[in-house]
Amino acid sequence: MKFESPIAVTEIAALIGAELVGNSSLQATGINEIHKVTEGDISFVDFEKYYNACLNSAATIIIINKKVDCPAGKALLVTNDPFSAYVSLVKRFRPFVPAHTPISDTAVIGEGTVLQPNVFVGHHVRIGKNCLIHPNVTIYDHTVIGDNVIIQAGTVIGSDAFTSRNAPTAK
Questions:
Q1: What is the share, in percent, of the chain residues with pLDDT greater than 90?
Q2: Phi-psi label, residue 93: left if phi above 0, alpha if psi -120 to 50, beta otherwise
Q3: Which of 64, 98, 108, 137 is the most exposed place for a label (fewest CB within 10 A)?
């Protein structure tokens, strides 16, 4: 997700109670998963196995659970629970808005697209042209679907991630 306007890394550090290491003058322009980050994005890592991938990614600001050498031009936000810090930022900058209709008034649905019965389309969803969405599909907020897509019955798209809390954390 992209922010409406850049946010100072010092403000992000204060919001999540993290120690800032590295470039304190950076501005965050968004927050994203490690495999989708672009320059300016915040991401997180909480397993040493993935430190190098995250530290060498396009992410500019990295929430991490251990002090490590900070790559040039980046900032690290060190906190005990990076995942929870990440989730708190997502909730702050893209809060949940309850749905009141099966198809949100903010959704944009392309010409020629067919929605079968019991399809739910959340807020700010964009569905391309000539799609076929079969019955009982759920498409959550802020999802983007291209042209000429077929989605089979009962599919859920755009749902939240989940995690297991049994893994040990780095010190």
A1: 85
A2: alpha
A3: 98
Q: For the chain, what is the HEC assignment?
A: CEEEEEEEHHHHHHHHCCEEEECCCCEEEEECCHHHCCCCEEEEECCHHHHHHHHCCCCCEEEECCCCCCCCCCEEEECCCHHHHHHHHHHHHCCCCCCCCCECCCCEECCCCEECCCCEECCCCEECCCCEECCCCEECCCCEECCCCEECCCCEECCCCCCCCCCCCCC
What are the tens digits of pLDDT across the range 15-42? 999 999 999 999 999 999 888 899 999 9
- Burial of 88-122, coded b for 16+ CB within 10 Å and e otherwise, reads ebeeebeeeeeeeeeebeebebbeebebeeebbbb
Total-model pTM: 0.77
Contacts for 77 with CB less than 8 Å, ≥ 6 apart: 9, 12, 13, 16, 18, 19, 20, 21, 42, 61, 62, 63, 64, 85
